[in-house]
Amino acid sequence: MDMTFAEKILANYSNEKNVEPGQIVTVHPDHLLTHDNTAPIISKINNELEKYGIYSNELSIIVLDHVIPAASEKTANNHKKIREFVKKFKIKNFYDVGYGVCHQIVVEKGHALPGKLLLGSDSHTCSYGAVGAFSSGIDRTEAASLILTGETWLKIPNTIKINLKGNLPDGVYAKDLILHIIGDISASGANYCSVEYHVDTSKFNIDDRFTICNMGVEMGAKNSVFFVDEKTKEYLKNINKEEDGYNIIRPDKQANYYKQLDYDLSEINPKVACPHSVDNVKPADELSDINIDQGLIGTCTNGRLSDLKIAADILKNKKIHEDVRLLILPASKKIYEDAIKIGYIQTLMNAGAIILPPGCGPCLGAHQGCLAPGERCISTANRNFKGRMGCKEAEIYLASPATVASSAIKGRITSPLEVA
Fold first, then answer.
1. In sequence order, which residues have a C-beta less than 8 Å from that of residue 200 and are 6 or more positions away?
2. Which is nearest to 268 in space by CA: 136, 387, 169, 393?
């Protein structure tokens, strides 16, 4: 029986010859990601931990990234509990404050590999499909159970095949594409589905694929995936992961798809997701009358080196509008260091940007860059729900790094085609 990517990989991990959508399978994932929420997760199972211990000290990947450095006594205490847990159970994959955003770290440190199964107590765990892994978010109770037992159940998802043809125009980026798709099929258009991107992958670098897969959950997807190609292999080789260390999974030619969608990349233009839903998508050039107070370039969606380059190229020898605060948030320490060496950080600072430490920062509204009532922020993040950046009376617009940088110059939402 021919199978999709999700069906093949979940069949492998459940020791089943064949599986089909809707079937429940028991799996042992390669890794479980948790972050600052590790503290409440382990608090659920204090007694069990004392009695039974953990399943494996190699299963967990713990990254402190959401509120770093700690912004309150409560947060500091949670971080302390996590560090004590790590030491007590000798957790091997622990990344303390300063390493970066959890999803970037998982890929950057080589924990996500083709053919691997990763689950995480964060909805954007779906990002790792960028390198051909099956990855998906789970809730805290499931995460707690995994820490103890190493196994959980998953339902085999239906699969949506998205065919991408043509080429993106100049000034249009992966973020514009994924916003266009979400705006087209809606925030629930891929509920509990696996999304496969079928495209000449030479058109998208690993950073592009990361951005697209990261936002799969914003259309309800269980996971999103690009298939392994030479660019994937080259990226993995650069982080010391050779091809004999992973298993490349591709769908069978006659796999059965729940739905197929076709998009012509040449027809995509700069997009903006307007408040208060990610699928409220409009062309950037139709929003030029909307002033902004803050811009944010970074997060697990668009905080990579190529994103900082795009922003730096636009902002070089220019100044941010006097009424705008532009926050720059590298996704990892390595990206930050590389951006300093190349000169992107200096260029951004010369334009008036504020550089934040690698982490999640203002994205979730818990730390740094919170908004005031009536303020507007244009951000490269992945969510614009009411209250997402700390204030229910503020507005958040989502866009590409190019659109955010262009808007920061003009003080209003601006298509990058306007400042090209």
1. none
2. 169
Both 31 and 114 in one domain: the answer is yes
Q: Please give the C-alpha separations between residue 400 and each of 55, 180, 208, 213, in angstroms, as whole numbers.
A: 41, 12, 11, 15
| Contact yes or no for 161/190 (Cβ under 8 A) | no
Q: Are residues 254 and 282 in the same domain?
A: no
Say what the pLDDT of residue 420 is. Answer: 67
Tokens of 143: 């995460």
Same domain, 78 and 211: yes
Statement to judge: residues 38 and 106 lie in one domain: yes
User: 131 and 56, same structural domain?
Assistant: yes
Summarize the chain as % helix, strand, coil (round to 5).
40, 20, 40
Please report, rounded to a whole number, the percentage of residues in the chain having pLDDT higher than 90.
95
Contact 118, 134 (CB under 8 A): yes
Residue that the structure tokens 């959980």 belong to: 152
Question: Are 69 and 209 part of one and the same domain?
Answer: yes
β-pairing, 281-283 vs 271-273, is: antiparallel
Position 388, amino acid? R
User: Hey, what are 263's tokens?
Assistant: 């998009």
How far apart CA 417 and CA 365 sit, in angstroms, is: 30
Return the CA Rg of the chain: 21
Distance of CA 267 to the CA centre of its chain: 25
With beta carbons less than 8 A apart as the criterion, state whether 388 and 368 touch.
no
Write out the two tokens for 268. 């995509």
What value does the mean pLDDT take over residues 397-417?
97
Element of type H or E holding 389: none
Q: Residue 86's CB: how many other CB atoms inside 10 A?
A: 19
Q: What is the CATH number of the domain that holds 85?
A: 3.30.499.10
Structure tokens at 349: 């600072």
Model confidence, pTM: 0.95
CA-closest candidate to residue 175, choices 419, 418, 420, 416: 416
Arithmetic mean of pLDDT, 173-196: 97
The answer to whether residues 251 and 349 belong to one domain is no
Q: How far is CA 227 from CA 99, 114, 119, 150, 366, in A?
A: 28, 9, 19, 27, 35
Three-class DSSP category at 34? strand
The count of structural domains within the chain is: 2
Domain that holds residue 161: 5-263
